Amino acid sequence: MYIGEKLEAIRRAKKMSLTELSEKSGVQMATLSRIENKKMIGTLESHMAISKALGIDITELYKGLAQQNAIIDFGRDKETDVFTHSDVASYEILTKNIMNKKMMPTLVRIAPEGKTNKEQNEVGTEKFIFVLDGKVEINVNNQIFNLHKYNTLYFDASLPHYYRNLGKTPVKLICVGTPVAL
What is the pLDDT of residue 77? Predict the structure, then answer.
């Protein structure tokens, strides 16, 4: 059994709606719904608030949960989500069930002489870049990093940043962000 299934079973046994649980726990209804539908697992803080609102000890929420070992995800064997940021840049999520993950691997493609839109993620967000093909300029808080094939960069993604193709051929890079942020 997963945390979402357990939460839903306890909530229903207590004849409590998602709305009521949200109001009593202070956890957003959308978050509760995502947890129950196995789209995310929530945080320890949300679990504590939920347990208190349900009138149970937090250990009751965790009792009988399945131990999750290795997750096999063959990524490219299935349809992936592609987000087009502009006419010259796109991001392809390389795994499924992304909201259940602790990091988000994407394949970034940038057309010749193109660039991505400026991004600035939440505080505590980090990114790792691995250049597969091409030459790219990574601008992080107005600090420039020029990378080429097989170069890497690890940076604080809460700082404003964007990527620019420096060449006449397409750039492909793997970007891994943590925690997951859409």
Answer: 45
